[in-house]
Amino acid sequence: MADHYEVLGVSREATPDEIKKAYRRLARELHPDVNPGEDASERFKLVTHAYDVLSDPEQRQRYDMGGDSSPFGGAGGGFGGFGDVFEAFFGGAAGGRSGRPRSRRERGQDALVRVTLDLGDVVFGAHRDVEVDTAVLCDTCEGSCCQPGTQPVTCDICHGAGHVQRTVRSLLGNVVTSQPCTTCQGYGTTIPYPCGTCAGQGRVRARRTVSVDIPAGVETGLRLQLPGSGEVGPAGGPNGDLYLEVTVTPHEVFSRDGDDLLATLEVSMPDAVLGTETTIESLDGPVDLEIRPGIQAGDVLTIKGRGITPLRGGQRGDLRVGVHVVTPTRLDAKQRALIEDFAKKTKAPAPHLAEFHQGLFAKLRDRFRNG
Q: Where primarily located (predicted)?
């Protein structure tokens, strides 16, 4: 293994600029397109590898730990052979990795899309076509990252291992270290002719439509996971997941309480006294409702099975309607006389404090919950 400084023809004190200039000069002289000779090709590989090491401050510092400019491949040093012993016991290179090269195919990232629903969608569920701006597989290279008709080639520096080894002299002897190959970035192969459509990524940005069935019972802040509907990974790797974050817009009439729906029904004073029948418009359509005579403000009328279907299935909740008796505020003389005559005949007691009733306050909370 030749000394990197000698390969580039610079001193150990050379500055980064001097190293770069030496590399450029030699690369122009030895590049296979300029100098097709076999010796030139081998020297070009050595020059490229030497520059990769010495141009990286951390790699250069580790390389300089050897203490002189001689190769470190032999027994060398007073302790000799420590790297070989380490590999014999642990099956790999000391201080480095000896596994397989990196795979270009990686899992794609997850994507998050926000979707807005109304209360009717929550009750019955909904279907949405969601537009997602994400990464999709490149149609030109189909994830190979190469121009059609070409393929990756084995790296000349690491010979497909994805990492390179070198021996460093330490107090314990010669230690073999392993580092990712800077020429192929640890993949073990290079792509001489990258795909022009995706620039060698195997994927491109595009807008696509994802059809989603949103179940009933969702609520604001809930995230629905669609496995495999996120962006495609580099080099055609597996898709990530798509998450839908739900926002439910407030309804003018109905509000939600768990799996129940709440609403307020305004009843005139005569209808509250005499009772009546009416039809209200629920989210399911018209519903007939009977108001019994003498109904009180704060009473709750329950309509079974007209609420929300639970997210994980089961029986629907109820529609609970809180009664609000509307007291007239403007009376003509004739109406006022009728009310006064009614009050005299009924001999109603004067307003007074009554026994505390917890249920009354619970009804009031239900009635004003959507206010």
A: cytoplasm
